[in-house]
Amino acid sequence: MTQGPPTPPPSSTTEIQDQVRDAVASAAEGSSNTSAESAPPTPAPVADSYQQAFPQICDLASQSDFSALAQFSELSDLKGRNARSHTRLLVVVPLILAYLIQDDLTLAHLVLVRLPENLRVHPLIRAIENLLTSASERQYVDVYSHAGLLCTFTQQSEFPDDILGNLVASMVAMFVESFRRRTYFLLSQAMSSIKTTQAQAYLGFTREQLLSGMTCGTWQYNPASDTLHPLSIGNTVTGANYSGSSIAIVSGIRAHTLSSVPSTLDTFHSVSNGLINLEAGL
């Protein structure tokens, strides 16, 4: 068989560039195919102990069993091997909020102080610390403000974990509810009258929410003085169970005798500054 003449080598600059480009592309394709065939599959990431504990924490929170949640979270935190891992937030954040809901502020603070610096400066931990500080100091207006900011922060689209964000928002709402209930009960015990503006600050409600809820059989509103007076029914004052922005009245939380002498503004400040001592004696 007769062979044709050999292909002449590239002579022009264009031909040389085309040949080099074809050679490089062919080599790259071959290398890519070889790498794809020889590279082992990427193993799935293994969940650490904090991530493994998180579903059980969510389940306990859904049952409102915050005592069990706190106990389980404490054990999970102690068993964790990497105290500086950001996945540790899956355990310590619900733990702190559980203590807040139970009004065990000392234990909540102890969880915070044992965190390493890299977690203490995390925005979520800083927001929770602000809430804890306000609750500890009984800065009522700040409690509701920081609670609202914390919920807003966890519901933003850029928040890294939707499940954690929803859990935090839910537990913060439960804390606010329990905080309001305790505050309402203490005011009912301590006061024979209170200005509506002061009650708003203590309970974190608008004027409309306050008057519609507190005058449903538990407090009487005096428009002339713009004050609220707890009603005495056989030396018993009813309490309140808060849900969201409304107040569902529940009777018979605890009986006590009201003072027959209206409280002055000085008395109000004296009593309000001593609410922590009152609460400790309940």
Summarize the structure.
With 282 residues, the protein is mainly α. 60% of the residues lie in helices and 10% in strands.
Low-confidence stretches: 233-272, 276-282
Number of helical elements:
13
| Strand runs, count | 5
Largest sheet, order of strands side by side? 1-3-2
Overall, the morphology is elongated
C-alpha Rg (nearest Å) = 32 Å
Our measurement of the CA-to-CA distance between the termini, rounded to an integer number of angstroms, reads 112 Å
Largest sheet data: 3 strands, antiparallel
Describe the structure.
With 282 residues, this protein is mostly helical. The chain has helices at 13-38, 49-62, 66-79, 89-101, 105-113, 117-120, 123-136, 140-154, 162-190, 196-203, 207-214, 265-273, 275-280, and strands at 194-195, 219-222, 227-230, 236-243, 246-255. A three-stranded antiparallel sheet has the order 1-3-2. It has a two-stranded antiparallel ribbon with strand order 4-5. Helix 2 packs parallel to helix 4 (89-101). The N and C termini lie far apart (112 Å).
Topology of this protein?
Layout: H1 13-38, H2 49-62, H3 66-79, H4 89-101, H5 105-113, H6 117-120, H7 123-136, H8 140-154, H9 162-190, E1 194-195, H10 196-203, H11 207-214, E2 219-222, E3 227-230, E4 236-243, E5 246-255, H12 265-273, H13 275-280
Antiparallel strand pairs: 1-3, 2-3, 4-5
Helix pairs in contact: 2-3, 2-4, 3-4, 4-5, 4-7, 4-9, 5-7, 7-8, 8-9
Structure keywords:
single chain, mainly alpha, two-stranded antiparallel ribbon, 5 strands, 60% helix
